[in-house]
Write a structure and sequence with these properties.
- By secondary structure, this protein is α+β, with helices and mostly antiparallel strands.
- It contains three helices and six strands.
- The chain has helices at 30-35, 40-43, 87-111; strands spanning 4-10, 15-20, 25-29, 61-67, 71-76, 84-86.
- The strands form two sheets. Strands 1-2-3 form a three-stranded antiparallel sheet.
- A hairpin with a 4-residue loop joins β2 (15-20) and β3.
């Protein structure tokens, strides 16, 4: 299990920068975090129940609160605040960001939706 050593919210560039104790450092765009929210609203309650998020290109983060010593609760300016982003989730997002983003863009295109 990796733990964060530094978390910086960059409002101007809309990026959450997070460094971990394994030496990794990731820049996670607000839009990426929003469309991949670990909440049931986005992920559903099981495989195949995911809800495609769209129109989130300009989403902002209004607050980031620690949840115990294991996660962040992120509140977005579109009112979404139900996802708990565990350290494990954020680390996985960072490691798989490029593939996850390409898959998301392909899903948008297939659905005829836009960012």
């Amino acid at each position: 299990m990796t733990n964060p050593t530094d978390i910086v919210l960059h409002q101007k560039s809309k990026v959450l920068e997070i460094a971990f104790d394994d030496g990794s450092r990731f820049n996670l765009p607000f839009e990426f975090l929003r469309v991949h929210s670990p909440s049931a609203e986005v992920q559903g309650h099981g495989p195949g129940q995911e809800t495609l998020q769209f129109g989130k290109k300009d989403v902002n983060i209004t607050s980031v609160e620690p949840v115990g010593s294991y996660a962040l609760q992120i509140t977005f300016d579109d009112g979404h605040d139900s996802g708990l982003y565990s350290w494990e989730t954020l680390h996985r997002f960072g490691k798989n960001q490029d593939d996850m983003w390409q898959e998301y863009l392909a899903q948008l295109k297939a659905a005829g939706k836009s960012r």
